[in-house]
């Protein structure tokens, strides 16, 4: 009768002398072990498709850690994101689709190809010129591959709306569709606010009117604000997250002051408590 086998320790990869390569090799050895026949049942059940949502979740957690300016948490969350990439690549390798070497080689070739001002003879005088060259090269690649060759191509539909708006703004501006400076973008935002007010006023006068135009105009306001953010060097997605964090902090403080009367207290009392919460948090 065979005896049950005990746990098998990880076989540590041989050191290369480079801490970065040694750490990456250790992660890959762990992922290989997890996907082995006697590895982790959960990891062995995963597919490329089942792991895809984890990419989004881990990326958002990494962004949150960066926003908190916590190097320790940022490093940990980036590690989780790399682990998901390594695991997806291992699953694909076992299905004879692609492997991590394919992934790494593709991005290495792309970086060299899209940085001719670093690895070639192209001269640029600013980051804006470098970005414009990058977009032109991407456009040429899409034409060569017979893909969508629009200057706006390549922005994932699944991105959060404000983040996607920022990317669309950057691409359209890089393509030459731009104001001379931020004053033009600010005037456009004011124009969209006026159009929203007109749509809102029409709906107030006639409640039977469909709300589609009001929603469209509100969307245009948000889009114009995102475009203005690009001219000012402000990431609209990050700005919205920071505003939400401030709102939540102030609301919770107001909630703690008002207590159980929150749902029944007059608006004037709530606003007074809100202003006190705002003053208290701003003083920090």
Structure description:
The protein is mainly α. The chain folds into four domains: 95 residues, MazG-like (Helix Hairpins, Orthogonal Bundle); 36 residues, no CATH class; 80 residues, MazG-like (Helix Hairpins, Orthogonal Bundle); 50 residues. The chain is 70% helix and 0% strand. The protein is built from twelve helices and no strands. α1 crosses α4. The longest helix is centred in the first third of the chain and has 24 residues.
Largest sheet: none
Oligomer: single chain
* Helix-strand category: mainly alpha
| Rg from Cα | 26 Å
As a percent range, the share of helical residues equals over 70%
CATH level-4 homologous superfamily of the largest domain: MazG-like
Task: Give the CA-based shape.
Answer: extended
Uncertain ranges? none
The figure for the number of domains is 4
Average pLDDT, rounded to a whole number, is 90
CATH topology (level 3) name of the largest domain: Helix Hairpins
Distance from N terminus to C terminus (CA atoms, Å) equals 69 Å
């Amino acid at each position: 009768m065979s005896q049950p086998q005990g746990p098998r320790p990880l076989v540590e990869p041989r050191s290369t002398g480079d801490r970065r390569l040694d750490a990456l090799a250790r992660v890959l050895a762990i992922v290989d072990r997890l996907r082995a026949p006697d590895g982790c049942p959960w990891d062995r059940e995963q597919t490329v498709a089942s792991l895809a949502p984890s990419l989004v979740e881990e990326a958002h957690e990494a962004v949150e850690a960066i926003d908190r300016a916590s190097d320790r948490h940022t490093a940990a969350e980036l590690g989780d994101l790399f682990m998901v990439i390594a695991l997806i690549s291992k699953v694909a390798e076992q299905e004879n689709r692609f492997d991590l070497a394919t992934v790494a080689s593709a991005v290495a070739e792309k970086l060299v190809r899209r940085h001719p001002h670093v690895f070639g003879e192209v001269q640029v005088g600013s980051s804006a010129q470098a970005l414009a060259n990058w977009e032109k090269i991407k456009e040429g690649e899409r034409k060569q591959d017979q893909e969508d060759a629009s200057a706006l191509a390549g922005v994932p539909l699944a991105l959060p709306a404000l983040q996607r708006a920022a990317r669309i703004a950057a691409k359209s501006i890089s393509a030459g569709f731009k104001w001379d400076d931020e004053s033009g973008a600010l005037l456009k935002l004011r124009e969209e606010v006026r159009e929203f007010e007109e749509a809102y006023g029409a709906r107030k006068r006639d409640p039977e009117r469909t709300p589609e135009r009001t929603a469209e105009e509100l969307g245009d306001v948000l889009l114009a604000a995102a475009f203005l953010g690009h001219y000012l060097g402000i990431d609209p997605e990050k700005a919205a997250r920071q505003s939400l964090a401030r709102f939540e902090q102030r609301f919770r403080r107001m909630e703690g002051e008002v207590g159980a009367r929150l749902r029944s207290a007059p608006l004037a009392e709530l606003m007074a408590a809100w202003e006190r919460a705002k003053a208290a948090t701003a003083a920090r």
